[in-house]
Amino acid sequence: MYGVYPRGWGKTFNEVIIMFIACVLYPGIEFALTAQTKENAAELLKNKYNDILKKYPWFKNEIYESKFSNNKAEITFLNNSNIDVLANSQSSKGQRRNIIMIEESALLDDFTFQDALLPIVEHGRITVGSLAIINPEEPSQKINFYTTAGFRGSDEYERNLRMVDDMINLNGQIVIGSDWHLGCWYGRGSTKKQIMYKKRNMSPIAFAQNYESKWVGSVDGALVDILKLLKLRVLPAPELECPKDKNGNYELCEYCFGIDVARSNSDSNNKTVIAVLKIIRNDNGSINEVQLVNIIVPPNGLNYEEQAIEVKKIFKKYGGNIDLVKSRVKAVIVDINIIGQGLLEELLKDNYDPVTNEKLECWATINTDDKPKVINSPNIVYGLKAQGINGDIIRIFIGYIESGKLKLVRNLSESEKGININNKDTIEIKQAYKQTDYFIDEISNLKLRKTQNSVTVDQVVRRVDKDRYSAVAMGLYYIDMFLNEQEDNTYSDDDEIVYF
Questions:
Q1: Please, which residues bridge with residue 448 across strands?
Q2: Residues contacting 281, CB < 8 A, separation 6+
Q3: For FRET with 223, which of 129, 326, 341, 356 sits at 20 to 30 Å CA-CA?
């Protein structure tokens, strides 16, 4: 069975209460609720357990005991039926249950499903009594998928299509779903007016997935494999600044900023985006991976001077220093095509923080003839013009995705249990998680188009920006071209392999 529902409108509640009813009716049956992590699954089961007992207190008469902890949840019924939790990962391999309920299956890749989850339901429920057989009239080896719509081209999207075909051909599969209209009709969640307001202000992709239950993104000519992109979400938390040691000194980190520049007063228009990329090297100096530790979007409507002040303040937060030997930020890559030239001019002079009156020193460029207002300013800014190198930028971006060398921050729901958020940083850190979601939305909306001499990217839906993609892609281009110290390719004349 497969269900696609709008986020937040009862799919998990329905999922769990189905298990409760089946456990009462079928003695000795074993269920497992699975999610991205066991912690996430345990939290979901605990919340719905409490919710169900409030609404239907008679279930208390059927339950023998319940146990809940951070990564464990188990409910045992008087008739020896049982519900517990597992993770949608290889850690669940070798487990056995009669039925599993897969939560947010759009995030599950097909290899993990086939290798780790599918064998879990290898054995059906044995009936109680002297015969002790598998009831031929009872569905066995059953797997139920519950999810918010995801991305077209993903493994789960393809499974959805196969199951629809099986349903048409009466092969024992069923696919059901609904969009926001059903919940709204029955008075659940937001009103129609509130939802229409959200539609005007949310990302079109986020609204299509979470409210309209539409699978989104480009299948033909997609920029990257969206499933590979989702697998890169492994970083437990964003970095709001460069970490410090116990003495208050910045740790030996290495960052680059990619900045896509915009100038607009409208939130629906393109935005200036600062992508903070952290470089992790191998012992030989080559790049092992690049971590997208934060994406910062300054308020729209800032003039170029105000944007330059924001950039320099963020530069200092990540250990940037005008003494380039000490600086943790190695370069700030700025798109200087037309609009970006205005920001560049402001970065090339002294600025002052209007709140603290702190002086923010003048910078110089690494690669252009633009003269700074202050002589001998540090060469921090790399002015990038995409004309002529756009194909290289795209190629390098795709390479980092395909090779898995780019790492992204995990989904907030997977990380919030394991991070300590103090009150001061709560909004900022949650925004960092959300910006990674928006970045993935943008990538899913891009497709490759071949030009006469190269390739470019087009937006499938014009309302979805590509500023976050541009900022990250420019940063990766600079890192790969100028900061990736390659292995030594010189060989000794008596090297046997070279001689052979």
A1: 457
A2: 254, 287, 288, 485
A3: 341
Percent above pLDDT 90 for the chain: 60
Reported for 119-123, long-range contacts at CB under 8 A and 24+ positions apart, including other chains, are 119/93, 120/32, 120/86, 120/92, 120/95, 120/96, 121/96, 121/97, 122/96, 123/96, 123/98
Q: Calculate the average pLDDT of the chain.
A: 88
Angstrom distances, CA of residue 455 to CA of 208, 353, 474: 28, 41, 16
pTM > 0.85: yes or no: no
CA angle, corner 407, sides to 403 and 410, nearest 5? 135
> What CA–CA distance (Å, rounded) separates 192 from 213?
16
**Long-range CB contacts (< 8 A, 24+ apart) of 338-342?**
339/261, 339/262, 339/263, 340/259, 340/261, 340/383, 342/261, 342/263, 342/304
C-alpha span between 167 and 138 (Å, rounded): 19
Decide yes or no: CATH 3.90.1260.10 for domain 2-177: no
Instruction: Please say whether the beta carbons of 259 and 272 come within 8 A.
Output: yes
pLDDT-based confidence at residue 500 (cuts at 50, 70, 90): very low
**Residues 293, 314: Cα–Cα separation, whole Å:** 13
Ordered strands of the 273-281 beta sheet:
233-235, 406-409, 287-296, 273-281, 255-260, 329-335, 379-384, 364-365
Q: What are the residues whose beta carbons fall under 8 Å from the beta carbon of 157, sequence distance 6 or more? A: 106, 150, 151, 215
Measured CA to CA in angstroms, residue 201 lies from 30, 204, 347, 416, 463 at distances of 44, 9, 32, 25, 11
Report the run of H or E that residue 228 belongs to, with start and end. helix 226-231
Give the chain's largest Cα–Cα span: 93
Cβ atoms 149, 216 nearer than 8 A: yes
Indicate the DSSP class of residue 345.
H
The answer to whether 153 and 222 have CB atoms below 8 angstroms apart is yes
Q: How many Å apart are CA 320 and CA 331, to the nearest integer?
A: 9
Count of alpha carbons within 13 angstroms of residue 216, beta-carbon side: 25
Helix axes 339-347, 304-317, angle to 10 degrees: 60
Q: Does domain 226-483 have CATH number 3.90.1300.10?
A: no
Residue ranges of the chain that CATH labels 3.40.50.300: 2-177
- pLDDT, tens digit (0-9, with 9 covering 90-100), for 114-169: 999 999 999 888 887 777 888 888 877 899 999 988 888 788 888 999 999 999 99
Closest CA to 148 of 100, 208, 227: 208
Instruction: Quote the CA–CA distance of 167 and 171 in Å, as a whole number.
Output: 6
Which amino acid is it at 19? M
Written as six digits, the tokens of 389 are 């190198």
